[in-house]
Amino acid sequence: MKHITVSRRAWLAALAVSLASPFAAPVAAQTFPNKPLRLIVPFPAGGGTDAMARALGDALSRDLG
Looking at the domain assignment, is residue 1 inside a domain? Predict the structure, then answer.
Protein backbone atom coordinates (compact mmCIF):
# COMPACT_ATOMS: atom_id res chain seq x y z
CA MET A 1 0.00 0.00 0.00
CA LYS A 2 1.30 3.42 -0.93
CA HIS A 3 1.93 5.88 1.90
CA ILE A 4 0.51 9.39 1.55
CA THR A 5 2.67 12.23 2.83
CA VAL A 6 1.35 14.83 5.24
CA SER A 7 1.47 17.64 2.67
CA ARG A 8 -0.43 15.56 0.15
CA ARG A 9 -3.01 14.66 2.80
CA ALA A 10 -3.45 18.37 3.64
CA TRP A 11 -3.84 19.20 -0.05
CA LEU A 12 -6.50 16.50 -0.46
CA ALA A 13 -8.37 17.75 2.62
CA ALA A 14 -8.35 21.32 1.27
CA LEU A 15 -9.62 20.06 -2.07
CA ALA A 16 -12.44 18.14 -0.39
CA VAL A 17 -13.50 21.19 1.63
CA SER A 18 -13.46 23.46 -1.42
CA LEU A 19 -15.56 21.00 -3.41
CA ALA A 20 -18.10 20.55 -0.60
CA SER A 21 -18.52 24.24 0.29
CA PRO A 22 -21.16 25.09 -2.40
CA PHE A 23 -23.48 22.52 -0.84
CA ALA A 24 -23.33 24.17 2.60
CA ALA A 25 -25.00 27.44 1.50
CA PRO A 26 -28.56 26.07 1.11
CA VAL A 27 -28.32 24.36 4.48
CA ALA A 28 -27.22 27.58 6.19
CA ALA A 29 -30.18 29.46 4.70
CA GLN A 30 -32.80 27.31 6.45
CA THR A 31 -34.56 28.68 9.52
CA PHE A 32 -34.50 26.79 12.80
CA PRO A 33 -36.78 25.87 14.42
CA ASN A 34 -39.48 25.85 11.78
CA LYS A 35 -41.90 23.88 14.01
CA PRO A 36 -42.31 23.45 17.78
CA LEU A 37 -39.65 21.36 19.52
CA ARG A 38 -40.70 18.57 21.84
CA LEU A 39 -38.54 17.72 24.83
CA ILE A 40 -39.14 14.11 25.91
CA VAL A 41 -38.19 13.18 29.47
CA PRO A 42 -38.46 9.44 30.16
CA PHE A 43 -38.98 9.87 33.91
CA PRO A 44 -42.15 10.53 35.97
CA ALA A 45 -43.30 14.07 36.73
CA GLY A 46 -42.38 15.67 40.04
CA GLY A 47 -38.81 14.41 40.27
CA GLY A 48 -35.51 16.18 39.88
CA THR A 49 -35.24 15.23 36.24
CA ASP A 50 -38.65 16.75 35.56
CA ALA A 51 -37.67 20.01 37.25
CA MET A 52 -34.44 20.23 35.25
CA ALA A 53 -36.28 19.47 31.99
CA ARG A 54 -38.85 22.21 32.71
CA ALA A 55 -36.09 24.73 33.43
CA LEU A 56 -34.25 23.69 30.27
CA GLY A 57 -37.47 23.98 28.25
CA ASP A 58 -38.14 27.49 29.56
CA ALA A 59 -34.59 28.59 28.78
CA LEU A 60 -34.74 27.10 25.26
CA SER A 61 -38.11 28.75 24.70
CA ARG A 62 -36.66 32.17 25.58
CA ASP A 63 -33.48 31.65 23.53
CA LEU A 64 -35.08 30.19 20.41
CA GLY A 65 -38.26 32.24 20.45
Answer: no
